[in-house]
Amino acid sequence: MPRCLPRHAHRALIPFDWLVEAKLLGRFEAPAANEPGHTVRAATYLAKVEGEVAVRAEIEEMVWIDIAAPGDIRLAPLMRVVLAAL
């Protein structure tokens, strides 16, 4: 697990001692959701956490979805690419 991952997880989502393990899912890129003509790239991890996860910092909203049937939830292009890899 990269040393910076707990710090980023703590700042964005969870208290950092709750991050139990993380495995690189992959590196992905897709068109930016809100900036036409731009691309976003991400190293994405599958993480195991203990306790409750809550949004913090720059994360606006978090919802649990069924990846096979996300319903009418609008997903950013990068999120669709990442979910397809699961």
Structural class: alpha+beta
Q: Helix count?
A: 2
Cα shape: globular
Low-confidence stretches: none
Strand order of the largest sheet: 1-2
Total count of strands: 2
Q: Compute the average pLDDT.
A: 79
Q: Give a short account of the largest sheet.
A: 2 strands, antiparallel
Helical content band: 10-25%
Q: What percent of residues are in strands?
A: 25-35%
Cα(first) to Cα(last) distance is 19 Å
Series of secondary-structure elements, N-terminal to C-terminal: HEEH
Radius of gyration: 14 Å
Describe it for me?
This protein is of the alpha+beta class. The chain has two helices and two strands, in the order αββα. Strands 1-2 form a two-stranded antiparallel sheet. The chain starts with a helix and ends with a helix. The mean pLDDT is 79.
How is the secondary structure organized here?
Elements (H helix, E strand, L loop, with lengths): L3 H9 L6 E13 L7 E11 L27 H8 L2
Antiparallel strand pairs: 1-2
Summarize the structure.
With 86 residues, the protein is an alpha+beta fold. The chain contains 2 helices and 2 strands.
Quick tags:
alpha+beta; 2 helices; about 90 residues; globular
